[in-house]
Write a structure and sequence with these properties.
Blueprint lengths: L19 H11 L3 E5 L5 E6 H7 L9 H10 L2 H4 L13 H11 L3 E5 L5 E6 H12 L6 E8 L4 H10 L5 E7 L7 E8 L4 H14 L1 E7 L16
Antiparallel strand pairs: 1-2, 3-4, 5-7, 5-8, 6-7
Length: 233
């Protein structure tokens, strides 16, 4: 999946001469954690994060009075605190590569720029989560099986054929060699809705023929109300 299919093109930006206080208000109002900084031609020249704003803000322990504080804050411009050592992604690069860039650089978003270094979008951790939900098919199938299979051609097809023989639709198939035993790979198959009785029969059948690491049913209907309410002391 390419970044251009998942990035947000309605990007909120600021100029280098924008006051720090204004940038802070924008972030708070828009509930965002970073702001790309562009010049008059739309070229990306920097980025400012909520961490940058906190670092640049005077400490509460300062001896300055409120008027002096307000004056000091009003003189700070984005160009004084923005980062110019930029990590970026191109629209035709993959979402997986974007995820690696975020992990390696410990950041939560990436500006998307074209060949002329003009900002054309932004992709965030939330977008990566949307991709994960999409490729796993969790919204279309609430049951997932995990198998340890021999790493050879046809091993996945054998499992898939057994599942389909029960008249069950396969929603997604994912495979990885990470955390798998030598010469094997872990395969994750998500299936469409199935009655409990048929599911029990399927589980037994698969466990008799393959190494089933687990089978799990996700209660997606509980997602909106899943909370722990801790009483206040």
């Amino acid at each position: 999946m390419l970044v251009k299919g998942w990035m947000n093109t309605d990007v909120i930006t600021v100029a280098e001469d924008t006051a720090m206080m204004k940038a802070s208000i924008i972030m708070k109002d828009e509930k965002i954690r970073s702001l790309p900084v562009v010049d008059k031609r739309g070229k990306l020249v920097g980025i400012v994060t909520d961490r940058d704003l906190r670092t640049a803000s005077p400490s509460k322990a300062t001896s300055l009075d409120i008027q002096e504080l307000n004056y000091l804050i009003s003189t700070i411009k984005i160009k004084d605190i923005m980062s110019t050592d930029l990590v970026f992604i191109r629209p035709d690069e993959t979402v997986e590569f974007a995820a690696i860039l975020m992990l390696e650089n410990k950041i939560s978003s990436l500006p998307v720029i074209n060949g002329k270094d003009a900002l054309i979008g932004i992709i965030t951790q939330t977008d990566i989560f949307r991709v994960l939900v999409n490729i796993t098919g969790i919204c279309a199938g609430d049951v997932q099986f995990a198998f340890s299979l021999k790493d050879r051609p046809g091993s996945i097809k054998e499992v898939a054929d057994e599942i389909r023989s029960f008249g069950i639709r396969i929603v997604s198939i994912l495979s990885t060699r990470e955390q798998a035993e030598e010469g094997r790979h872990n395969v994750y198959i998500r299936i469409g809705s199935v009655a409990q009785e048929k599911l029990r029969a399927l589980v037994k059948h698969l466990e008799d023929k393959f190494i089933v690491l687990y089978s799990s049913r996700d209660l997606t209907e509980e997602a909106e109300k899943r909370r722990i309410r801790v009483p206040r002391q």
